């Protein structure tokens, strides 16, 4: 698939203001996976970044400044925008995910809208299906509109799907969206991911 086709796919997902999440399928989890995901979600520590050295911290600050500028039109309030970006950075790193991928997914799923709800009932920035709060959370689906909770669930779920698909990002994204095996959604995320790439 060429870049133009992928970009058109991404634009079709972004053309309308509604949330475009598919319907993730509720699948049985083995006890060890359920326990690990539940523990990870239950850790309510605030997203405090730790850096190994000064250069790592400076790289993060350069990233934050650049991403804040790119996101300004969608989130005009500086404090809200920086808290959002910091939390995306923290939760992406915590789950071992590429930050630009997570931002691309959020752009496709919700258009960076905190209170987005899809036709299938998925909620928030990362369009998490409410059944996940019952399976690995406390059952309160309203918490999916809380920024850190939504980003944590979304990143952990994507990591879980990536592990299930043995690192195949294309298939993991399809599973995340409930469109496994179809190219439109992964291609849209990959196209949007390019908009959030950063080289220090």
Quick structural overview:
The protein has 200 residues and is mainly alpha-helical. The protein contains 9 helices and no strands.
How is this structure best described in words?
The chain has helices at 3-14, 31-42, 54-71, 78-95, 99-110, 131-136, 147-164, 169-177, 184-194. It has 200 residues and is mainly α. α5 packs across α9 (184-194).
Number of helices: 9
Q: Would you tell me the structural class of the helices and strands?
A: mainly alpha
Q: How do the SSEs run, as a string of H and E?
A: HHHHHHHHH
Shape: globular
User: What can be said about the biggest beta sheet?
Assistant: none
Report the helical percentage: 55-70%
- List the uncertain runs: 1-18
Mean pLDDT: 86
- Count of distinct strands: 0
Rg over C-alpha atoms, rounded to the nearest angstrom: 16 Å
Q: What is the end-to-end distance?
A: 29 Å
Q: Which strand-content bin applies to the residues?
A: under 5%
């Amino acid at each position: 698939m060429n870049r133009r086709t992928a970009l058109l796919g991404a634009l079709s997902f972004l053309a309308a203001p509604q949330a475009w999440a598919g319907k993730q399928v509720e699948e049985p989890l083995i006890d060890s996976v359920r326990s690990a995901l539940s523990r990870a979600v239950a850790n309510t520590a605030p997203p405090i970044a730790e850096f190994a050295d000064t250069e790592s911290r400076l790289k993060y600050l350069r990233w934050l400044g650049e991403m804040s500028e790119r996101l300004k039109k969608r989130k005009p309030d500086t404090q809200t925008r920086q808290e959002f970006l910091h939390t995306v950075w923290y939760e992406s790193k915590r789950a071992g995910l590429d930050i630009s991928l997570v931002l691309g997914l959020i752009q496709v799923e919700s258009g960076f809208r905190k209170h987005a709800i899809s036709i299938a009932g998925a909620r928030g920035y990362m369009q998490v299906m409410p059944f996940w709060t019952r399976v690995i959370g406390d059952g309160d689906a309203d918490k999916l509109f809380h920024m850190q909770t939504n980003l944590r669930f979304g990143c952990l779920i994507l990591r879980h799907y990536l592990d299930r698909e043995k690192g195949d990002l294309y298939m993991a994204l399809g599973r995340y969206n409930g469109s496994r095996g179809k190219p439109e959604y992964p291609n849209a995320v990959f196209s949007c991911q390019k908009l959030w790439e950063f080289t220090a």
